[in-house]
Design brief:
Elongation Factor Tu (Ef-tu), domain 3, 4-stranded antiparallel beta sheet, 3 helices, 21% helix, disordered N terminus, 3 domains, 35% strand, OB fold (Dihydrolipoamide Acetyltransferase, E2P), alpha+beta, 342 residues, conserved putative lor/sdh protein from methanococcus maripaludis s2 fold
Protein backbone atom coordinates (compact mmCIF):
# COMPACT_ATOMS: atom_id res chain seq x y z
CA UNK A 1 0.00 0.00 0.00
CA UNK A 2 2.87 2.38 0.81
CA UNK A 3 4.49 1.61 -2.56
CA UNK A 4 1.33 2.55 -4.41
CA UNK A 5 1.00 5.81 -2.48
CA UNK A 6 4.66 6.68 -3.11
CA UNK A 7 4.22 6.07 -6.82
CA UNK A 8 1.16 8.32 -6.91
CA UNK A 9 3.05 11.06 -5.12
CA UNK A 10 6.01 10.80 -7.57
CA UNK A 11 3.72 10.92 -10.62
CA UNK A 12 1.82 13.83 -9.16
CA UNK A 13 5.03 15.72 -8.56
CA UNK A 14 6.18 15.19 -12.12
CA UNK A 15 2.85 16.34 -13.51
CA UNK A 16 3.01 19.41 -11.32
CA UNK A 17 6.46 20.31 -12.58
CA UNK A 18 5.32 19.89 -16.19
CA UNK A 19 2.28 22.04 -15.52
CA UNK A 20 4.56 24.78 -14.22
CA UNK A 21 6.60 24.65 -17.45
CA UNK A 22 9.65 22.99 -15.98
CA UNK A 23 11.30 20.33 -18.13
CA UNK A 24 13.35 17.86 -16.17
CA UNK A 25 15.88 17.37 -19.06
CA UNK A 26 16.24 21.03 -20.03
CA UNK A 27 19.73 22.59 -19.78
CA UNK A 28 20.60 26.17 -19.16
CA UNK A 29 22.30 27.95 -22.10
CA UNK A 30 25.95 28.59 -21.34
CA UNK A 31 27.01 32.21 -21.51
CA UNK A 32 30.22 32.92 -23.45
CA UNK A 33 32.90 34.45 -21.26
CA UNK A 34 34.01 38.00 -21.89
CA UNK A 35 37.50 38.21 -23.34
CA UNK A 36 39.94 41.05 -23.74
CA UNK A 37 40.92 41.76 -27.35
CA UNK A 38 43.16 44.20 -29.20
CA UNK A 39 42.32 46.07 -32.37
CA UNK A 40 44.33 46.63 -35.50
CA UNK A 41 43.99 49.50 -37.95
CA UNK A 42 43.08 49.21 -41.59
CA UNK A 43 46.15 49.91 -43.68
CA UNK A 44 47.77 49.69 -47.06
CA UNK A 45 49.19 46.48 -48.51
CA UNK A 46 52.94 46.29 -48.19
CA UNK A 47 55.37 44.57 -50.50
CA UNK A 48 53.47 45.26 -53.71
CA UNK A 49 50.39 43.98 -55.47
CA UNK A 50 49.58 41.71 -58.40
CA UNK A 51 48.39 42.89 -61.81
CA UNK A 52 46.95 40.62 -64.47
CA UNK A 53 48.98 39.75 -67.57
CA UNK A 54 49.01 37.36 -70.52
CA UNK A 55 51.89 35.10 -71.48
CA UNK A 56 52.71 35.12 -75.18
CA UNK A 57 55.54 34.62 -77.64
CA UNK A 58 57.68 37.55 -78.76
CA UNK A 59 57.16 36.31 -82.32
CA UNK A 60 53.53 36.02 -83.38
CA UNK A 61 52.28 36.29 -86.94
CA UNK A 62 48.78 36.42 -88.39
CA UNK A 63 49.21 34.96 -91.86
CA UNK A 64 47.21 36.52 -94.70
CA UNK A 65 47.45 37.05 -98.46
CA UNK A 66 47.35 40.05 -100.77
CA UNK A 67 45.49 38.08 -103.45
CA UNK A 68 41.83 37.25 -103.94
CA UNK A 69 41.69 33.50 -104.46
CA UNK A 70 40.15 30.21 -103.37
CA UNK A 71 41.80 28.07 -100.72
CA UNK A 72 43.14 25.00 -102.52
CA UNK A 73 44.77 23.12 -99.62
CA UNK A 74 45.28 23.56 -95.88
CA UNK A 75 48.40 21.59 -95.02
CA UNK A 76 48.60 22.08 -91.24
CA UNK A 77 46.35 21.74 -88.21
CA UNK A 78 46.07 23.67 -84.95
CA UNK A 79 48.76 22.74 -82.47
CA UNK A 80 51.09 21.43 -85.16
CA UNK A 81 54.76 22.46 -84.91
CA UNK A 82 56.32 23.65 -88.18
CA UNK A 83 59.77 24.72 -89.34
CA UNK A 84 60.59 28.01 -91.06
CA UNK A 85 59.63 27.90 -94.75
CA UNK A 86 57.03 25.13 -94.34
CA UNK A 87 54.10 25.45 -96.75
CA UNK A 88 51.01 26.11 -94.65
CA UNK A 89 48.20 27.03 -97.07
CA UNK A 90 48.02 26.83 -100.86
CA UNK A 91 45.67 29.14 -102.77
CA UNK A 92 44.36 28.71 -106.30
CA UNK A 93 46.63 30.39 -108.87
CA UNK A 94 45.20 29.25 -112.22
CA UNK A 95 44.44 32.78 -113.44
CA UNK A 96 47.87 34.03 -112.42
CA UNK A 97 49.59 31.10 -114.12
CA UNK A 98 47.76 31.93 -117.35
CA UNK A 99 48.78 35.58 -117.08
CA UNK A 100 52.37 34.54 -116.43
CA UNK A 101 52.54 32.41 -119.60
CA UNK A 102 51.18 35.29 -121.65
CA UNK A 103 53.68 37.71 -120.06
CA UNK A 104 56.59 35.32 -120.67
CA UNK A 105 55.54 34.95 -124.32
CA UNK A 106 55.43 38.73 -124.68
CA UNK A 107 58.85 39.02 -123.08
CA UNK A 108 60.32 36.44 -125.45
CA UNK A 109 58.87 38.34 -128.44
CA UNK A 110 60.25 41.70 -127.38
CA UNK A 111 63.65 40.16 -126.58
CA UNK A 112 63.80 38.72 -130.11
CA UNK A 113 62.98 42.13 -131.55
CA UNK A 114 65.66 43.64 -129.31
CA UNK A 115 68.26 41.28 -130.72
CA UNK A 116 67.22 42.18 -134.27
CA UNK A 117 67.55 45.90 -133.57
CA UNK A 118 70.96 45.32 -132.00
CA UNK A 119 72.09 43.52 -135.16
CA UNK A 120 70.83 46.33 -137.36
CA UNK A 121 72.49 48.85 -135.10
CA UNK A 122 75.82 47.07 -135.61
CA UNK A 123 75.34 47.46 -139.40
CA UNK A 124 74.37 51.12 -139.02
CA UNK A 125 70.91 50.18 -140.34
CA UNK A 126 68.88 51.42 -137.31
CA UNK A 127 68.85 54.52 -135.20
CA UNK A 128 69.83 54.91 -131.54
CA UNK A 129 66.24 55.95 -130.74
CA UNK A 130 64.88 52.63 -132.02
CA UNK A 131 67.34 50.76 -129.79
CA UNK A 132 66.37 52.81 -126.73
CA UNK A 133 62.68 52.16 -127.36
CA UNK A 134 63.08 48.42 -127.65
CA UNK A 135 65.27 48.31 -124.52
CA UNK A 136 62.48 50.10 -122.61
CA UNK A 137 59.98 47.53 -123.93
CA UNK A 138 62.19 44.68 -122.72
CA UNK A 139 62.49 46.23 -119.24
CA UNK A 140 58.72 46.69 -119.04
CA UNK A 141 58.06 43.10 -120.09
CA UNK A 142 60.58 41.77 -117.55
CA UNK A 143 58.91 43.81 -114.78
CA UNK A 144 55.53 42.34 -115.71
CA UNK A 145 56.86 38.79 -115.48
CA UNK A 146 58.55 39.51 -112.13
CA UNK A 147 55.34 40.99 -110.67
CA UNK A 148 53.27 37.98 -111.71
CA UNK A 149 55.80 35.56 -110.23
CA UNK A 150 55.66 37.53 -106.96
CA UNK A 151 51.86 37.36 -106.93
CA UNK A 152 51.98 33.62 -107.52
CA UNK A 153 54.36 33.30 -104.55
CA UNK A 154 51.73 35.05 -102.39
CA UNK A 155 49.36 32.15 -103.08
CA UNK A 156 51.78 29.84 -101.26
CA UNK A 157 51.56 30.78 -97.57
CA UNK A 158 54.76 29.67 -95.83
CA UNK A 159 55.93 29.89 -92.22
CA UNK A 160 58.19 32.92 -91.74
CA UNK A 161 59.75 31.28 -88.68
CA UNK A 162 59.55 28.01 -86.76
CA UNK A 163 56.70 27.73 -84.30
CA UNK A 164 53.29 26.28 -83.50
CA UNK A 165 50.03 26.79 -85.40
CA UNK A 166 47.89 28.62 -82.85
CA UNK A 167 44.65 28.87 -84.83
CA UNK A 168 43.31 28.20 -88.31
CA UNK A 169 40.79 30.64 -89.78
CA UNK A 170 39.90 29.03 -93.13
CA UNK A 171 39.05 25.68 -94.69
CA UNK A 172 39.66 24.22 -98.12
CA UNK A 173 37.29 25.73 -100.67
CA UNK A 174 36.88 29.07 -98.89
CA UNK A 175 37.27 32.24 -100.93
CA UNK A 176 39.63 34.75 -99.35
CA UNK A 177 40.51 38.34 -100.09
CA UNK A 178 43.48 40.64 -99.54
CA UNK A 179 44.36 41.03 -95.84
CA UNK A 180 41.92 38.36 -94.65
CA UNK A 181 43.45 36.37 -91.72
CA UNK A 182 44.16 32.78 -92.66
CA UNK A 183 46.25 31.30 -89.87
CA UNK A 184 48.00 32.42 -86.68
CA UNK A 185 51.54 31.22 -86.02
CA UNK A 186 53.25 31.50 -82.63
CA UNK A 187 57.03 31.33 -82.73
CA UNK A 188 59.35 29.22 -80.62
CA UNK A 189 61.92 30.78 -78.36
CA UNK A 190 61.48 33.87 -76.22
CA UNK A 191 58.25 34.60 -74.36
CA UNK A 192 56.94 37.81 -72.89
CA UNK A 193 54.29 39.05 -70.48
CA UNK A 194 51.84 41.68 -71.68
CA UNK A 195 49.82 43.70 -69.17
CA UNK A 196 47.83 46.93 -69.04
CA UNK A 197 48.79 49.24 -66.18
CA UNK A 198 47.39 52.49 -64.90
CA UNK A 199 49.63 55.47 -64.22
CA UNK A 200 49.71 54.60 -60.52
CA UNK A 201 50.55 50.94 -61.17
CA UNK A 202 53.40 51.83 -63.52
CA UNK A 203 55.11 54.17 -61.05
CA UNK A 204 58.59 52.96 -60.18
CA UNK A 205 58.79 50.69 -63.21
CA UNK A 206 61.14 51.39 -66.11
CA UNK A 207 62.67 49.57 -69.04
CA UNK A 208 65.22 47.05 -67.83
CA UNK A 209 63.63 46.54 -64.40
CA UNK A 210 63.08 42.95 -63.27
CA UNK A 211 59.71 41.80 -61.93
CA UNK A 212 58.41 38.59 -60.42
CA UNK A 213 55.45 36.76 -61.92
CA UNK A 214 53.48 33.56 -61.58
CA UNK A 215 51.53 31.54 -64.13
CA UNK A 216 49.67 28.28 -63.56
CA UNK A 217 51.35 27.84 -60.19
CA UNK A 218 54.85 28.40 -61.56
CA UNK A 219 56.87 31.36 -60.29
CA UNK A 220 59.33 33.16 -62.51
CA UNK A 221 61.21 36.34 -63.30
CA UNK A 222 60.86 38.73 -66.23
CA UNK A 223 62.56 41.90 -67.45
CA UNK A 224 60.61 44.95 -68.61
CA UNK A 225 61.33 45.58 -72.29
CA UNK A 226 58.81 48.30 -73.08
CA UNK A 227 56.24 50.59 -71.48
CA UNK A 228 53.73 52.54 -73.54
CA UNK A 229 51.86 55.48 -71.96
CA UNK A 230 48.12 55.22 -71.41
CA UNK A 231 46.44 55.39 -74.78
CA UNK A 232 43.07 53.83 -74.00
CA UNK A 233 40.51 56.68 -74.04
CA UNK A 234 38.35 54.91 -71.44
CA UNK A 235 40.71 53.26 -68.95
CA UNK A 236 43.72 55.51 -69.65
CA UNK A 237 45.97 52.51 -69.15
CA UNK A 238 49.20 51.76 -70.95
CA UNK A 239 50.88 48.54 -72.10
CA UNK A 240 53.78 46.85 -70.34
CA UNK A 241 55.90 44.16 -71.97
CA UNK A 242 58.37 42.04 -70.00
CA UNK A 243 60.61 39.30 -71.44
CA UNK A 244 60.49 36.04 -69.49
CA UNK A 245 63.93 35.21 -68.09
CA UNK A 246 62.98 32.02 -66.27
CA UNK A 247 61.49 29.52 -66.47
CA UNK A 248 61.30 28.84 -70.21
CA UNK A 249 58.71 26.95 -72.19
CA UNK A 250 55.50 28.06 -70.43
CA UNK A 251 52.20 27.58 -72.23
CA UNK A 252 51.31 30.35 -74.67
CA UNK A 253 48.20 32.39 -73.88
CA UNK A 254 48.21 31.45 -70.19
CA UNK A 255 46.95 33.87 -67.58
CA UNK A 256 49.73 35.33 -65.44
CA UNK A 257 50.21 37.82 -62.61
CA UNK A 258 53.02 40.34 -62.32
CA UNK A 259 54.10 41.53 -58.89
CA UNK A 260 54.51 45.30 -58.91
CA UNK A 261 56.74 46.08 -55.91
CA UNK A 262 55.80 49.03 -53.76
CA UNK A 263 52.37 49.41 -55.34
CA UNK A 264 49.73 50.65 -52.90
CA UNK A 265 46.24 49.41 -53.70
CA UNK A 266 43.57 52.03 -53.21
CA UNK A 267 40.69 51.20 -50.87
CA UNK A 268 40.39 49.18 -47.68
CA UNK A 269 42.83 46.51 -46.57
CA UNK A 270 43.25 44.21 -43.57
CA UNK A 271 46.27 42.55 -41.95
CA UNK A 272 46.79 38.85 -42.39
CA UNK A 273 46.91 38.45 -38.61
CA UNK A 274 43.21 39.41 -38.35
CA UNK A 275 41.92 36.88 -40.89
CA UNK A 276 39.66 33.97 -39.93
CA UNK A 277 39.39 30.95 -42.21
CA UNK A 278 36.33 28.69 -42.20
CA UNK A 279 36.64 26.23 -45.08
CA UNK A 280 36.46 28.28 -48.28
CA UNK A 281 35.27 31.41 -46.47
CA UNK A 282 37.49 34.19 -45.18
CA UNK A 283 36.40 36.74 -42.60
CA UNK A 284 37.36 39.08 -39.79
CA UNK A 285 35.88 39.85 -36.37
CA UNK A 286 34.50 43.37 -35.92
CA UNK A 287 34.15 44.98 -32.48
CA UNK A 288 30.54 46.17 -32.29
CA UNK A 289 28.31 46.96 -29.30
CA UNK A 290 30.68 45.21 -26.89
CA UNK A 291 30.57 41.96 -28.86
CA UNK A 292 32.60 40.29 -31.58
CA UNK A 293 30.79 40.16 -34.92
CA UNK A 294 32.09 37.73 -37.55
CA UNK A 295 32.12 39.35 -40.99
CA UNK A 296 32.79 37.43 -44.20
CA UNK A 297 34.85 39.40 -46.70
CA UNK A 298 36.25 39.10 -50.22
CA UNK A 299 39.97 39.72 -50.61
CA UNK A 300 42.11 40.81 -53.53
CA UNK A 301 45.63 39.68 -54.39
CA UNK A 302 48.62 41.23 -52.67
CA UNK A 303 51.91 40.66 -50.95
CA UNK A 304 53.12 41.58 -47.48
CA UNK A 305 51.25 41.86 -44.21
CA UNK A 306 48.13 43.62 -45.57
CA UNK A 307 45.66 42.42 -48.20
CA UNK A 308 43.18 44.55 -50.17
CA UNK A 309 39.46 44.09 -49.41
CA UNK A 310 37.04 43.93 -52.34
CA UNK A 311 33.82 43.74 -50.33
CA UNK A 312 32.37 43.07 -46.87
CA UNK A 313 34.12 45.81 -44.87
CA UNK A 314 33.40 49.48 -44.27
CA UNK A 315 35.90 52.20 -43.65
CA UNK A 316 36.55 52.94 -39.96
CA UNK A 317 35.25 49.65 -38.54
CA UNK A 318 37.21 48.23 -35.60
CA UNK A 319 38.98 45.02 -36.63
CA UNK A 320 40.02 42.55 -33.92
CA UNK A 321 43.60 41.40 -34.26
CA UNK A 322 44.62 37.77 -33.68
CA UNK A 323 41.08 36.52 -32.83
CA UNK A 324 42.22 33.00 -31.94
CA UNK A 325 39.23 30.97 -30.69
CA UNK A 326 36.89 33.98 -30.58
CA UNK A 327 33.27 33.19 -31.44
CA UNK A 328 30.61 35.20 -33.19
CA UNK A 329 28.61 37.23 -30.64
CA UNK A 330 31.06 36.69 -27.79
CA UNK A 331 31.35 39.61 -25.29
CA UNK A 332 34.63 41.46 -25.57
CA UNK A 333 36.57 43.98 -23.56
CA UNK A 334 38.47 46.67 -25.42
CA UNK A 335 41.33 48.81 -24.21
CA UNK A 336 40.25 51.99 -22.44
CA UNK A 337 39.53 54.94 -24.68
CA UNK A 338 38.63 52.83 -27.71
CA UNK A 339 35.32 53.34 -29.51
CA UNK A 340 33.24 50.16 -29.21
CA UNK A 341 31.72 50.63 -32.63
CA UNK A 342 28.24 51.54 -31.48
Amino acid sequence: MKSVVSSLILVGGLLGNLACGHKPDSREKLELPKVAVSLVAQGAPAGGAWVAATLQSTRTAMMSTRMAAQVRRVLVQEGQRVAAGTLLISLGDEDLQGQLKAAETGLATVEAYHRRIQALQAQKASTAVELEQVEAQVAQAEAGVTALKANIAYTQIRAPFSGVVQSRKVNEGDFVGPGMPLLELVGDGEQELVATLSEQESKGLKTGAKVKFESEGVEGEAQVTGMAPGGDPYSHKGTLRAKVLKPKGLRQGSFARILVSGLTVEGLSVPRSALVQRGELTGVFIAKDGHAELRWISLGDGEGSYLPVRSGLKSGENIIDRPGALQDGQPIELPSGVNHGK
